[in-house]
Design goal:
- Two copies of one chain form a homodimer.
- In chain A, strand 2 and strand 3 form a beta hairpin.
- Chain A is about 30% helix and about 35% strand.
- The model of chain A has no long low-confidence stretch (mean pLDDT about 95).
- Chain A is globular, with a radius of gyration of 14 Å.
- The two termini of chain A are about 25 Å apart.
- In chain A, strands 2-3-1-4 form a four-stranded antiparallel β-sheet.
- With about 100 residues, chain A is an alpha+beta fold.
- Chain A is built from three helices and four strands; from the N terminus they run βαββααβ.
- At the A-B interface, strand 1, helix 1, strand 2, strand 3 and strand 4 of A face strand 1, helix 1, strand 2, strand 3 and strand 4 of B.
């Protein structure tokens, strides 16, 4: 399993509309894609126009080929691309280490 | 709970030494800090000198004050700072959305 990480910066003042659009896109487009395993959306504390979108896929190709070359990608673009300023930087990562404090709730 | 995200880029060819140093630092320094909740280290697939370090803290201040103003921060610096090129960009994020595919293993 790999992680797609998109650093997103949106136009100022559009957080609420973006929050709704990305929730819709993740639920109706991304979550139905082959090889999708889960996602997380994080919002910047210092920079409220900044987001990180993390999507778990089975493989890099599930994202770059399976998703991006499918009609679903056009639906995703139509929902979200007008919010971006500038266009997001997207990289793929493999997990190296992970831990949680034992006594965490 | 908030997430510290550090975008790390290290000198070429030092991945193995960095992997060992960051594992040691997380285990012996970060995991003992007040307000620490868990961490994840991700390694770039397209860019093998690129890493993301994600650390869950109870609050932003647990990281920026409790950790960075403690002697532990000097131990962390001594273990890791010579790997960085350039110095990492660190931001804090709040979780907005999270989901996993129901049938995921």
């Amino acid at each position: 399993m790999i992680l797609e990480v998109a650093e997103i910066h949106i136009h100022a003042g559009q957080q609420q509309a973006f929050d709704e659009a990305i929730a819709l896109g993740l639920r109706t487009v991304i979550a139905r894609s082959e090889g999708y395993r889960g996602h997380r959306v994080l919002k910047g504390i210092e920079s409220p126009e900044r987001y990180l979108l993390l999507i778990h896929w089975d493989t890099v190709e599930a994202h770059t080929v399976g998703f991006r070359q499918s009609p679903a990608f056009e639906e995703w673009r139509a929902l979200l691309h007008h919010f971006y300023d500038p266009f997001p930087v997207v990289e793929h990562y493999a997990r190296v280490l992970e831990a949680e404090r034992q006594e965490a709730p």
